[in-house]
Amino acid sequence: MKKYITYFPGCVDSQNKRQSEDVLEKLGFEAGLVSEWNCCGAPPSHYKPDFFNKVVMPLRNLGISQQKGGNFLYSGCQVCVKQINEAVKIINSDSMFKNQADYSLEPFNANLKEAKVGSTGAVHLLDIVTGPDAESRLLNNSLKNIIRGDSILLYTGCYSYSENINRFKNILNLLGAEVSLYGECCGGEKLRNTTPVHSKRIENANAVDEFFKLINKKADEAGSDYILAICSMCEKNISEGIDLSDLDIFAPIIGLTEFIGFLFGLQGCGDLIAGGNSGNGDNPLKEYCI
Q1: C-alpha to C-alpha distance for 89 and 144, rounded to whole angstroms
Q2: Residue 74: helix, strand or coil by DSSP?
Q3: Residue 106: exposure state from Cβ atoms within 10 A (0-12, 13-18, ≥19)
Q4: Secondary structure class of 50 (helix, strand, coil)
Q5: Around Cβ 143, how many Cβ atoms within 10 Å?
Q6: Is the pLDDT of residue 195 over 50?
Q7: Nearest-angstrom CA–CA distance, 174 and 214
Q8: What pLDDT digit, counting tens, does each position of 12-41 carry?
Q9: Rounded distance, CA 229 to CA 97, Å?
Q10: What 3-state DSSP class applies to 17?
Q11: How far apart are CA 141 and CA 152, in angstroms?
Q12: Angle at CA 257, nearest 5°, toward 253 and 258?
């Protein structure tokens, strides 16, 4: 019997719901999407760190999940995971904050049934990918030799659980890939919806451009065939660097969910890294499962 989990796509993964559900099913989970979800609050709270943005917005999603019996939300976005878990910590730090949160969540029918740190919160996709059962499914059911000989730059961003990073690196090694690690904040919520790609604002254009070029340089130094981003926020921010960069040749980028789908042979997953990089900059760097 498959374990049921509640899946929270977040803003950056909201159009890729089907891909995530299919991948989680392959990993041995039955995934239910959080109905009527909202932004985790990280981007707005970066600019306006009030109680609503920092606590109410993330906890509304968690409260909806708990109404369906899921004490934990699962997400491919580390920014979302951090925001939700930080909100749980905040309401545990002072009963006044807990009461204020309950009052604010009541109109949404999203009051928390469980509020203790460790008993509820958010979990990143990599945390379950590196679990024993999911790891076994990856090693036993991945297409044979699909990444054998590949050189991968594993971009970890702000994901900090080194034990799980090393476990995943070991999985990729066992599947025949060579893996280099690189971890540095992608700009996270600071860059979300502030690049010309989305809102026509240009104040971050140079920062995004230089950041992407640095990652591309790291991939080149390591001889990497492509960049694998653990976090969907990182993947999106790096991908948008393509539109801002004047590089003629760039390293392809793929997100964790799509990459796992690629390993399992799901239709449309990993088309770019499987087909190679044209090097002319005309094609979008990111491709989704369809």
Answers
A1: 44
A2: strand
A3: exposed
A4: coil
A5: 11
A6: no
A7: 28
A8: 776 666 778 889 999 999 988 887 899 999
A9: 35
A10: helix
A11: 20
A12: 55
CA trace torsion 244, 195, 79, 95 (10° rounding): 160
**pLDDT the model gives residue 287:** 38
| CA dist., res. 19 & res. 255, Å (int) | 11
The C-alpha atoms of residue 290 and residue 286 are separated, in whole angstroms, by: 13
**Collapsed DSSP state (helix, strand, coil) of residue 181:** strand
Which pair of structure tokens corresponds to residue 189?
């919520």
Does the domain formed by 3-126 have CATH 1.20.120.1760?
Answer: no
**pLDDT at position 194:** 45
Assign 254 to helix, strand or coil. Answer: strand
Nearest-angstrom CA–CA distance, 101 and 119:
18
The order of strands in the sheet holding 3-7 is 29-33, 3-7, 72-75, 121-124
Domain ranges of the chain: 3-126, 142-275
Distance between CA atoms of residues 142 and 124, nearest Å: 21
16-53 in b/e burial notation, b at 16+ Cβ within 10 A? beebbbbbbebbebebbebeebbbbbbbbbbeeeeeeb
- Tell me which H or E stretch contains 29: strand 29-33
Q: Residue 4 is encoded by which pair of tokens?
A: 């049921």
Cβ neighbours of residue 112 closer than 8 Å, sequence gap 6 or more: 59, 62, 63, 66, 91, 101, 102, 105, 120
Classify domain 142-275 at the CATH topology level. Rossmann fold (3.40.50)
Whole-number Å distance between alpha carbons of 80 and 238: 17
Overall average pLDDT of the 149-170 stretch:
95
